[in-house]
Amino acid sequence: MANVVLIGMPGCGKSTVGVLLAKALGMSFVDTDVVLQARERRKLQAIINEIGIDAFLLREEEAILGLDCDRTVVATGGSVVYGRRAMEHLHKGGIVVYIRLPYEVIRSRLSNLATRGVTLRPGQTLRDLYDERVPLYEAEADIVFDAENGDIEQTVERIAACLRARMEGVDGQ
């Protein structure tokens, strides 16, 4: 199976789902936010605060362009869709899965916007960010997965089943 790349809003469960999905599929796991923090030797919010959002997005893209993985579930940062080259790199050899949740669910999960490392520009609300990003996620996704119903285990199993079916279809052609 190719890499599986998870995209979506902060709080949609990319990292949590990613770890469990990697176990379910017998794959490796990498979280690009963790990769970026290791490269920069500081937390995401500190990077944003110190160098600004535009420079942060460039660093995020550089970190992703440095990834060389195979049979890996890749949980990305929510802002990955702003990096054209990063998304092209992730699409090569990977199936991009958008984990979609309604705005209200995202809002209820994100109580720590000031410290979480979310790239909110001055005056931009979480709703603004959501509305801006949803079309980008949808445009980049090979699979759009609605994760509103079910617990984490059910979500993981449904995504795994969807990926297995997709790969069987590809292998069977």
Structural class: alpha/beta
Please provide the count of β strands.
5
Measured as a percent range, the helix fraction is 40-55%
Ranges with pLDDT <50 over ≥5 residues? none
The coarse silhouette is: globular
Mean pLDDT across all amino acids: 92
Strand order of the largest sheet: 2-3-1-4-5
Determine Rg (CA atoms, Å): 16 Å
Task: Indicate the proportion of strand residues.
Answer: 5-15%
Q: Tell me the major beta sheet.
A: 5 strands, parallel
Q: How do the helices and strands follow one another from N- to C-terminus?
A: EHEHHHEHEHHEH
Number of helices: 8
Helices and strands, with pairings:
Layout: E1 3-7, H1 14-25, E2 28-31, H2 32-40, H3 44-51, H4 53-65, E3 72-75, H5 84-91, E4 94-100, H6 103-109, H7 126-140, E5 143-146, H8 152-171
Parallel strand pairs: 1-3, 1-4, 2-3, 4-5
Helix pairs in contact: 1-8, 2-4, 3-4, 4-5
Could you walk me through the main structural features you see in this protein, from its secondary elements to its overall organization?
- It is a single chain.
- With 173 residues, the chain is of the alpha/beta class.
- It is built from eight helices and five strands, in the order βαβαααβαβααβα.
- It has a five-stranded parallel β-sheet.
- Helix 1 crosses helix 8 (152-171).
- The longest helix has 20 residues, at 152-171.
- The radius of gyration is 16 Å and the shape is globular.
